[in-house]
Amino acid sequence: MPEKIRKRIARSRTPNSLKIKKSPKKSPRPTTPGYESQRDGSRARRIYQVSPIKQQNSEILHIKRSKSRPSSGVLKFPKKHLETEENDLFNSIRNDLEAEWNFKNIPESLRSLYRECVFGLPTHKSITLMSRELNDLISNKATVQFAIKSVEEREKNIWHIKDLIYEFNKSSEEERMGALMNFSEILQNYRVLSLSAIESIIIWRDQLAYAQIVSNLNIRNVRRIPFIWNGENYIVRMKSDMDFLGKTELAKYFYFSDQSDPFLICPSDVKWDMSEKINELSSYFAKKTTKMLIPLPEILMNRVKLAEIIINEELIKENEVISHYVFRRWNTRSMANPEYFKIKMEDETNSKISEELTAELIQNFIGEILPQMITAESKMQQDALCFDEISINLLESICNEFSLKIAKKSYEKQIYPVISEQIFNDLLMKFDYKLAKISKNLIKEEIKDKKRNEAKRIKKMKTLDNDLAVKIANQIFWDCVKKSFNLAKLAENILLGELKKAEEKNDKINKEIAEIITKELISQFIEDQRIDKFAKEIKNEMISTENQIIDIISNDISERLIMEYLSNYCRNHLMNIFKVLLIKIHTNEFLENITSEMILSIAKNSLNEEARIFNENKMITEFIYEEIISNLANPHKLSLICVEILSVEKFYYMTSKMIFESFILEIISDEWLQEFADSEIENFAQLEAPKSPTYNTPSTDETVSQSYLSFANEEAFEYLANVEFKPVETPENLIQTAMNEYYKYLPSIIKENIPSAAALVEKSKAGINTSWYWIKKRKKIIGLLVFSIEPNSLFSKKVIILHISCIHFSSFNLILEHALNLIWNREDCDEIRLYFVNERPRQIKDMPKELKSLFFDFKFRWKTEIDEEIGTESYLGILRQSDRPKNSDERPQENAIINSVCSLSFEDDPIPYNSRKCREVLIFGNRICLIHALLSLFFRTQNPKKLSLIQIPLQNELSNLLGYMNTVEYEFKYLRNIVSKKPEDVLDYIKDQGYDSVLPENGLNSLSLLNLSFNWTSYNHFSHKVGSEYFDYFQFKNNLKIISTESAKIFIIPTSLPDIFTFIIKSENLAAQVKQGYWPDDLDLFTKVEDIFKEINALPSELAELWLPSFKKYCKWEIPWVEGYKITHQGMSEEKYVKRCHEQISVEISSAEFSDGILKSEIKEEFILFSDFVFGLVLTNLDSEEINPIPLFVTYVQEDDLIHSVNSQES
């Protein structure tokens, strides 16, 4: 009890305390009309709006109750008149309340409780409570509504848990492991719903208890108010709602108590404040068990504690036995539930004291709750002792002691509190405390015995587990050793084979080089002999001539001898250098050391010569220099270098000295020699290493360092007669980084008028075979070219240049000329379009004058294209000026070609049904051609339900589809037909269309043809390795969609035809049935695809990437199930029967367009289709809700249908 309340009680015992000083009156707080202000300062509550007459009556009642106020100017009505007005108001509000109950579907059990608590109050009190309840019901804020809603949500959750457990019991072990986390969340939601149900019921009961306190002066008369749901107390029922969990398969994975646990907190993740003994037991149990625990947030701890106390008290009130109920006893100073009581006071002071007392008791009840756990064993011992005579006597003694204390207190105090259920709770607490002391020793002994037994069992289990673990580990270790040994053997055999092949190749190369060198040495020896003979002849002539002639001749001979000596010395020294070079190549040493030794040796022995000889031999020097640099990386061409050097031997007498001098000067002055040598050494190492057929994407740092982004300086742009277009080797996932690095070197006039790096990468995904080329000069980057084939170009092939740039703008015209020549020669196109100003308004005035004049010099012209979807679009374009290459098609090649024909022959007499089964129904679905051939006979059939009297599944499906097409007037696009009674006319028509195996019957024939050829809007063509073989693949990365159904995944790819969409179905169930060789329900592939389309119940989502293999299929077959099918003309009695049905189908999905400039992509297995999928066409998009999609054509693709790759371009 707080000090403030104690002082007030002391003052109230004195006579002067009854004299209350009146405080000066304050002006009343203004209130909003229609709202009632609260005493405690809480938010005003909306009251029920009554009619003007009822409002007047309430004012009269207010006048009657305010007797203490000054009566001047106030009318006083007779007492009988006021009572009649109150009764009328009471009846009207009660009728409105009953009507609102009926409208809101409030249960009768809850209505009756409200009637008993409120309708029996004095009239003015009941009117106030009823008006508030009515207003709350209208605004859906009544406590009874919240209580009903929370209970209904909890019941729905329980039924949902039961349904999930039923499915969980039937599922496999793998499916169960995936559903456990879902169960954990659902059980946590159940706990929160249970807490909200109890709290809402307590709030509802507080409202009715308040009415009882108002009507009774003594709180002892306040009776218990249960919440009745389906004829029983719902709080009591919550005790055992979830007892069924311990008997389900879910108990193997979660720990559920054997006793009742409505909030599923035994055990729980949160550590409770328990005794030391309980902490030891719970920690031991947590180490032992492997089951999942349902987490209990700390926020819910106090709510769970209070809810369990309420359930326990409700059970005590119901006089039920709680022996099997897991009850957590919370250690509080007072276990009393501050149930609703009212203290009779004589004046306003005592009423204020009583209010503060009740508030203090409520704070103690809620705030001073401490957790305490009693184990199941102690509870059972405690229940057993309840029936003992000792416990009964003990309970009686405690009750007598408390009754004496209460009697004394009631005489001493002036305030007479009436103790209701608090007394019983205090007695129960002391009773539990003394019983706990008695059963403590018994529980300790049992716990010790259990610990001992459990320790022994754990030791045995540990020993067994350790032995088993050692055995398993040994077995796994030796299995791994065997596998590694086998793999090492295989790797050793492979390496030995590769080494043998490499040695054989090296031996062949060495033999060829040795033969070449020996031939050259022989030729050199013969030449040396000839020179010696010539020298001897000169000496003989010198002796025979005169002195003067001898002097002149001797001078000439001396000069020639010196030159011969120098030439021979240089030649012999070069041969020694090349011998060393061949030896070091044979030992696989780096070429950088060889080059440096050759340069140093030649530089030391070279002599100065006149500038005239240097100018004459400059062309020969440049030729030899370029050949040496280009062939230095390839050891197979070193012999050619020797031959070329020896072939210029005739120039050695006069020019060899200056040739090598210029060669040395060029090499020493070149800045990029060291970098080129490093790159060629790396290429040489790659040639010697074994080749890997797969592509591995390096890291970002490695790619940037190894991508050869070495840019040329200004000297490289002086002579650009010949440039090289090298494919960009950077992978697709790192091209953005490479472009950002390249854009740093571009001049501003080009950078400001081209798309950004990010826009270029994004735009490249929308074309066909987008090619990336570095423009290089002497291994240095001087520019970039990116182009692709324009999609949707049906009548002419057009190439789009997405990007072209140069590091130095002064040479941009030469780079553009080389790029145009490359495209005209490589791509068989009619037009080149240049979207150079892609991110700027496409107008001439926005382009700089330098660029404008440059493009116009190459005959680029501005063009405008009108598109209904995009709008007006301008671009730069140039048409082919020269003739097209020979053997070139005028139209671009189509990637998909589908040709199918269905031929029907009819008779007037009935034909028996053919029961033969064929495998083709599993592979092809050409139903639209068949229906078109049937409808072409009569244009419109009669009621399709009467088409066939034989109950055949496929004929019934055909009849249903014919009926549907009669109702919607299906438009057969891309289909052609012929109906004739002359077989020769049909045969001529078939041959014109290119079908040779269709032979018409005598009589009436109806034939339908489907010829389709189209491209896809954007793709890249790759050769991908699957296993040990290479296959052609299409890589799609733009405008892809995916739809997931219960049994399949549907991929949608747009085509160049606006109303044709390609769909691909991947279904494991469908593949398994095809492998079996039959359908269980005697249907075909077309019907199965229709069933999958009917399962679509959601819009498609975006797909990042898809890889489709190229394939080819061909089939010609007789359809047996159509034979005997009857068709009737609408409005006539004419009938026809199908005599024979023949189909010929060919499908080819391929592309011959390979480009070495396509960026290599990192492949994800989830985006690759290999085999066992359905390929089909549909006339409308699958996300359209207006038309039920009907497949135009379907076929099943298997591994034997795939096209092997003959190109080396890998993904």
Features:
1211 residues, extended, coiled coil, seven-stranded antiparallel sheet, single chain, alpha+beta, seven-stranded mixed sheet, Aminopeptidase, 27 strands
Low-confidence segments, ≥5 residues, pLDDT <50? 1-79, 269-289, 320-392, 402-420, 633-639, 648-708, 838-845, 941-950
Helix content, binned percent: 40-55%
Distance between the termini: 84 Å
Question: Could you give the count of β-strands?
Answer: 27
- Specify the biggest β-sheet: 7 strands, mixed
- Shape descriptor reads extended
Q: Write down the Rg.
A: 50 Å
In spatial order, strands of the major sheet run 5-6-7-8-9-11-10
Count up the helices: 33
SS-derived structural category: alpha+beta
Assess the beta-strand content as a share of residues. 5-15%
Oligomer: single chain
Can you characterise this structure?
By secondary structure, the chain is an alpha+beta fold. Helices cover 49% and strands 14% of the residues. Helix 3 (79-104) packs parallel to helix 5. The longest helix is centred in the middle third of the chain and has 124 residues, at 421-544. The radius of gyration is 50 Å and the shape is extended. The two termini are 84 Å apart. 25% of the residues are buried. Residues 1-11, 19-28 have a biased composition (Basic residues). Residues 492-519 form a coiled coil. Keywords: Coiled coil. Residues 1-44 are annotated as: Disordered.
